[in-house]
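Aim 2 progress update. The chain analyzed this quarter is reproduced below.
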Amino acid sequence: MTEPPTPVSRQRTSDAVDNTVSDAASDAQQGARRQAEDEHARPAVIAAPAWAARGLSEMVEAGAVDGNVAHVVVGDGPVDPARGRGVQVLWRYHLTPEQLGHVVDELPDLRWVHSDYVGVEELPLEKLAERGILLSNGAGIAARPMAEWVVLAILSAAKALPRFVRQSDAGVWEVGEPLAELEGAVVLLLGLGAVGTHTAAMLEPFGAEVRACTRRPRAQTPRGVSRMVVGEGWREELADADYVVCALPLTSETTNMLDADVFGAMKRGAYLVNVARGGLIDDDALVHALESGRLGGAALDAFRQEPVPEGHPLWGRPDILALPHVTWSSTHTLDDFKWRFAAQLRTWLSGGTPADLVDLDAGY
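Predicted structure tokens:
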């Protein structure tokens, strides 16, 4: 038996319901689309010092960051509370540690701080940790020029270059003692981050034996590294090392790491290179090691107090090459700062987590 036809009134009611549902779905889709368009059009609000304006503009113009960027200027004075509310991202961009601490206090909704530099020991890490704010740094950003300086310092020491520069300036012709070669020389790398990794690779063609020290075991041995040393084992390598290179972060555990005991355990006449932090070295112990002849010399790019004050015992010594914290410098580094932040910001705005996050408890 066939079913009777649907009454006209029932059919019309069904059509009306279907149309209503369809209209509602269409409205919802359009609303979602408008919301997405609004969010895309809404500028990303970035807190940064005034001199970051050009960099932010270049990021947008180059398409490195999607959409507009609204710049809330910080560091020149108190932040207007109305402008500070809702700001989640802070680009440190040369703010001093003290300025950074004040700015963090003025941004109640802050969630992420990016610092262009590698070292973070002077930043308010405890404050950031208490508020659950992420901190990313410029890990590895100047590794190549710094590694070049390490190799230059080692070559300079092997070939007694500072002595020949002084002789040339004074018009003195003197050959002196036979010079060293790098082939077979033992280089002890204290730290195997980006700087240490680049240094090992650059030393490989010279035939040096590179022993690299890390806190924890590594699954793979980087190019140019002859042997990996874990934990406190680095102390046992000191007696063999012709060159000791500091490429470590400064933490409570590494402060004064190179003290009188370490210098006393070094191979007589060894050479020290520090491109990390001045606080790693006990300055009094260093001077004593140089004066006693235990240490042959040192190239230092970092000091406890910078600039180094007049009359400091490390000034004016023929066995010290004192650099004005310049090993990071290259024509590319400042641009690299900008594009590194742009990439990090793009990740953040897409809902991702920035790379190179600092362990706020460990301090690096």
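Residues 1-22, 31-41 have pLDDT under 50 and may be disordered. The two ends are 82 Å apart (CA to CA). These observations will guide the mutagenesis experiments scheduled for the next reporting period.
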